[in-house]
Amino acid sequence: MKKLMVGMALTATLATAVTPGFGSIGGNQEKAYAATVTYKVTASKLNVRSGAGTTYGIIGSVVKDQTLSVVSKSGSWYKINYNGRTGYVSSDYVQASGTTTAPTTPPAESTAYTVTASTLNVRSGAGTSYASIGSVTKGQKLSVVSKSGSWYKINYNGRTGYVSSDYVQASATASPKLVVDSFKTLGNAQQVILVTADNYDTKSAKIQTFEKVDGKWKQVLTANGVLGQKGFALSKKEGDMESPTGKYTIGTAFGRYANPGTKLPYRKITANDVWVDDSKSSLYNTWQQKPANGRWTSAENMDIPAYDYGFVINYNESRTPGKGSAIFFHVGTNYTAGCTATSKEQVVSILKWLNPEKNPVIIQSPVSELDKY
Predict the structure, then answer these.
(1) CA-CA-CA-CA torsion for 82, 87, 89, 94, nearest 10 degrees?
(2) How many angstroms from the chain centroid is the CA of residue 303?
(3) Which of 25, 79, 190, 253 could make an S-S bridge to 358, C-beta 3.0–4.6 Å?
(4) Residue 114 pairs with which residues in a beta bridge?
(5) Could you give the 3-state DSSP secondary structure of residue 255?
(6) What angle do CA 319, 323, 326 make, to 5 degrees?
(7) What is the pLDDT of residues 33-52, one digit of tens each?
């Protein structure tokens, strides 16, 4: 087996939807009502995603009538607490129950809340008739939970407090810059798989995927992965146990089972399938079928667990003898002989995400050399 490796477990998450919650307009009514508001799933099964959009991976699901813990809103998606972690659901499949005339709106997570008054009282309820439990000062950042009328509900020293919205400035925060935002060699690529390592000599890799949506790059997932046993190659050679660096297009998807749902061209592996790694063969670095009949003296068997699912990285397309062959993205958790690998779940998730119409590419590089791209 030429490609032996270790991959990490994947948790890709599919976001689901919830509708805004409702709260009372103030006073004791708000406190009593807030405790009774519930958010329940209306779909028979609703995916929970790792980000606010359908391009993000699925991390789990919720079922009909399940109660959700809504944290905030981002566009048409709600951020929720899901089994001790953060998840996102679409607002179309969750109903907020409660009898009130004014909604309590979860804050947009892309908003910063800053105190504008020199000193601002924090009260125990949403109104000036409530007792002051402390104060905040000008320029202080607030952790806003929701808004009801003209009051913000905040987290204050480990307890719940309320401040007047008249003395708080809400402003959009700049989205953090992604590594792909600085790349200048992507051309018309709208999907990028980025494989990085701390240096040339490590077999451990970080795998990130990005997609351009409405002209802006968004990160889809982050996963652990592995490279060749000897890390990245400065100059790839056949049999060196190193993974090539560079930017490459993505070729045929493959697997020993039926197509898992990828849009890429897909080829099901058979017992006779091999990849020729004989540098002296005219079929070097191509997918062929046994028997060899003198056409090659060395070839890699494709019908192995490492290739349960994967895709071809279009490396050495000129088939230069000795420059390296059979460079794939596939299943594995230890190291490879020159490929890139991660867990089967993540490989399948990436295969489903890849769209040839978006001209996907894979970039492999030590972190210190990302400025080349």
Answers:
(1) 20
(2) 30
(3) 190
(4) 141, 169
(5) strand
(6) 70
(7) 333 467 888 888 989 998 88
